[in-house]
């Protein structure tokens, strides 16, 4: 019941988990991302992470763009700044909401799937069987998922940016009375290449985090079906928290004066 002992246990557990993650990251980079490559596995994971995530990404981006346009218009009417709706929607989607929301949605879907798949392979000893067959599990299981995550999420974010801006355009022209040509002109004139590229850089980092957390928790799953469920939950939570933390760090670095 000693509160200091409780705090100490939490700190020691956190440090131990950080150390395990560091060793896993080292093996994933030095072994999983070096030849021999498995192009077929990379393609399969890209389809699972990217193509199968398109519906949820598209719906999320569309409604986010529409809601953002409504909120900016309502706030702008207080200061006679309604004309800024198109510009701020484009900026908010490409810089922040596109990559962050896409990352969180994919984290909830993909990190859980990776952790469940690898966790099941761990508890059923399929990963040990790969080692017996002289196949390095980091190279065959972890590497393709990380490569697929880094490649796929920027592609999803490009689609999310387009759909999100389109959602704002539809709401702005259909509900708020903006002229369609003027809305598009304000969007194109205001956007800069840095706004788009910064979102894609964030997306690549988020894709790495999503794949890494799913692989890490699934790879280290223990305790049968209950352990697989715990690994799935931990993968989603840790990926989501790291995405938000990484977003702050990347924004500070990319837009520092």
End-to-end C-alpha gap: 49 Å
Q: Tell me the count of domains.
A: 1
Sheet with most strands: none
Structural category is: mainly alpha
How is this structure best described in words?
- The protein has 257 residues and is an all-alpha fold.
- It has one domain.
- Helices cover 84% and strands 0% of the residues.
- The protein is built from nine helices and no strands.
- Helix 4 (85-123) packs parallel to helix 8 (193-219).
- The chain starts with a helix and ends with a helix.
Q: What's the helix and strand layout?
A:
Elements: H1 3-32, H2 39-49, H3 54-76, H4 85-123, H5 126-132, H6 137-174, H7 180-190, H8 193-219, H9 224-254
Features:
mainly alpha, 9 helices, 257 residues
Short description:
This protein is mainly alpha-helical. The protein has nine helices and no strands.
């Amino acid at each position: 019941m000693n509160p200091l002992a409780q705090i100490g246990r939490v700190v020691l557990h956190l440090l131990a988990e950080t150390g395990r993650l560091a060793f896993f990251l080292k093996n994933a980079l030095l072994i999983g991302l070096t030849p021999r490559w498995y192009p077929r596995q990379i393609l399969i994971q890209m389809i699972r992470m990217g193509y199968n995530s398109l519906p949820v990404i598209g719906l999320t981006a569309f409604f986010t763009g529409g809601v953002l346009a409504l909120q900016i218009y309502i706030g702008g009417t207080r200061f006679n700044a309604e004309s800024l709706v198109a510009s701020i929607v484009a900026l908010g989607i490409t810089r922040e909401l596109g990559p962050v929301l896409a990352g969180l949605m994919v984290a909830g879907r993909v990190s859980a799937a990776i952790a469940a798949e690898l966790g099941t392979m761990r508890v059923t000893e399929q990963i040990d069987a790969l080692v017996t067959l002289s196949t390095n599990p980091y190279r065959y299981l972890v590497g393709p998922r990380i490569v697929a995550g880094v490649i796929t999420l920027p592609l999803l974010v490009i689609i999310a940016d387009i759909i999100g801006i389109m959602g704002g355009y539809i709401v702005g022209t259909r509900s708020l009375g903006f002229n369609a040509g003027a809305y598009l002109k304000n969007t194109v004139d205001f956007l800069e290449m840095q706004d788009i590229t910064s979102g894609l850089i964030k997306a690549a980092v988020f894709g790495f985090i999503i794949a890494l957390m799913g692989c890490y928790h699934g790879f280290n799953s223990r305790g049968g079906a209950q352990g697989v469920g715990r690994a799935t939950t931990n993968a989603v939570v840790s990926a989501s928290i790291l995405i938000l933390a990484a977003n702050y760090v990347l924004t500070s670095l990319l837009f520092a004066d």
